[in-house]
């Protein structure tokens, strides 16, 4: 009887680990809908929790296209969620693009970005700020 219970527990543990490893990102997004801001609009989601893609993410008047990520599962052993994120096309002058390595500490809830690159047009930046004088600027930052 103990042997059967042990085998069932090992099976359930293995099933839980396999389910967590292969869980689709769309299911995780559906489960977290309640904790996301209402102004956040998310496009089509594909891939797994560990490596995936979102066609577009929009928050208020900022839009990021083609958001991709890769998570490093080994960092979870030390209490760190680590990975890479990319968004947009660096060649498209009219959209925001960038990439970064990131680390989020699960213990003290601190976040860190490394090798971060962010590209956007001056026009997009001017929409986000209010200046006391009218300014006409063009270009890419």
TrEMBL record:
Family: Belongs to the GSP N family.
Keywords attached to this entry: Cell inner membrane, Cell membrane, Membrane, Protein transport, Signal, Transmembrane, Transport
Record InterPro entries: T2SS_protein-GspN
Pfam families: T2SSN
Signal peptide region: 1-19
UniProt entry tagged with the keyword Cell inner membrane: yes
Protein name per Swiss-Prot or TrEMBL: Type II secretion system protein N
Gene Ontology terms: cellular component: plasma membrane; type II protein secretion system complex
Compartments where located: Cell inner membrane
Keyword Secreted (UniProt): no
GO BP terms in the entry: protein secretion by the type II secretion system
């Amino acid at each position: 009887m103990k042997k059967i219970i042990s085998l069932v527990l090992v099976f359930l543990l293995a099933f839980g680990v396999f389910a967590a490893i292969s869980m689709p990102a769309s299911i995780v997004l559906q489960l977290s809908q309640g904790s996301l801001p209402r102004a956040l609009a998310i496009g089509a989601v594909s891939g797994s929790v560990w490596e995936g893609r979102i066609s577009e993410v929009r928050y208020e008047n900022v839009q990021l296209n083609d958001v991709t990520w890769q998570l490093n599962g080994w960092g979870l052993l030390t209490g760190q969620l680590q990975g890479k994120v990319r968004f947009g096309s660096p060649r498209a002058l009219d959209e925001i693009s960038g990439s970064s390595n990131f680390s989020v500490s699960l213990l003290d809830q601190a976040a860190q970005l490394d090798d971060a690159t962010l590209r956007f047009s001056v026009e997009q930046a001017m929409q986000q700020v209010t200046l006391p004088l009218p300014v006409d600027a063009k270009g890419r930052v």
